[in-house]
Amino acid sequence: MTMSFEKSPFDATPDAAMEGGALDQEARDAIARLGEHDLQKIDQAILSSLGREWKKAGFITAGVMIAAPDEYEDLPEMFYASRIRVLAEASRIETKGDARALKTFEIRLAPATGAA
Fold it and tell me: Which of 39, 58, 62, 109: disulfide with 102, CB 3.0–4.6 Å?
């Protein structure tokens, strides 16, 4: 597994994702409204989009954004990418490539515990 997250434009938490001024106020407000339950729903949507085959992270973030409920419509792609980082750091998904390049960065579900 190869992860390259150094100096990434996003971070794992909603507050950290807002830092750096790259987001407009609408996106900042949408992120600030998120609770733990929302983060779990978003993470589950990402995980549900994955299997054991490699997929482009940009494809997954776009699909999750399109399918997301209206309450999440103001969340930027950068935020969904930050949730991918959280899942990778928690070893729930595997990654390949540079996380800053969503079009070429690849992700898949991590193997189940005890599985080869």
Answer: 58
